[in-house]
Write a structure and sequence with these properties.
Length: about 230
């Protein structure tokens, strides 16, 4: 099973340099709407079987054009929602950098718990569980490998990618997830394979059109010794 982790397009809070968190009504800006419309071409001809998204408006707006083009009804999953930043929600990033907790978020995020909100370790647990659950559900529905898309938020994507890479959560700040970027993970019985991180190019096609073949090759759960054969 392969998931495309899509970050929502650029939002009004991104350009205002405000930590939106779970604030209601945060929509895409003009650039974000262009990014949303552009997903149709970026994902052209890929056999996407399902679209799952965070309940927040900026994610729902991001996948609307693509879901309509694919003829799919998005599934909303609360576990893919933005971090609950608690008392940090709605504050200017410039002000938050002066908070003592900011240094913890940067250097030791596994210990970071936002006042009145949740901890980043909780975020990783719920988000990875959501991705794994949808993977199993879609594998059952489609009889094996299928490609699907999850539209969510930057820190959520970074936490899921860190888990797939086998990184401790304290290393998740090394991962980048720009607005409208795509990170791709193929899950197998043995291990996940991280195929793309922060992809912002015109087309996302590499190795996503079919599951790997095992005819004369290593089993799909095994890494190729010596690197890719392509």
């Amino acid at each position: 099973m392969t998931v495309i982790l899509l970050r929502h397009g650029r939002s009004t809070s991104n350009t205002a340099h405000v930590l939106a968190g779970r604030s209601e009504g945060v929509d895409l800006d003009d650039k974000g709407r262009e990014q949303a419309a552009g997903l149709i071409d970026r994902l052209a001809e890929l056999p996407i079987r399902a679209v799952v998204c965070s309940p927040l408006l900026r994610c729902r707006r991001t996948i609307e054009p693509l879901a309509a083009a694919l003829g799919l009804q998005p599934v909303v999953d609360e576990r893919l929602s933005e971090v609950d930043y608690g008392e940090w929600t709605g504050r200017k990033i410039a002000d938050l950098t002066k908070e003592p907790l900011w240094a913890v978020v940067q250097a030791h995020p596994s210990a970071a718990v936002f006042p009145g909100g949740e901890g980043l370790a909780q975020v990783q647990t719920r988000a990875v569980a959501a991705v794994r659950d949808h993977d199993r559900r879609l594998a059952d529905e489609h009889g094996g490998d299928a490609l699907w898309l999850a539209c969510t938020h930057g820190d959520v994507i970074k936490a899921v990618v860190a888990d797939a890479l086998g990184l401790h959560l304290d290393g998740f700040q090394r991962v980048t997830a720009d607005p409208a970027s795509m990170s791709v993970i193929r899950y197998t019985q043995l291990r996940p394979f991280v195929m793309h991180v922060n992809h912002t190019g015109a087309r996302l096609t590499s190795a996503l059109t079919a599951p790997p073949s095992s005819d004369g090759e290593a089993p799909p759960s095994d890494a190729v010794v010596g690197g890719s054969t392509d």
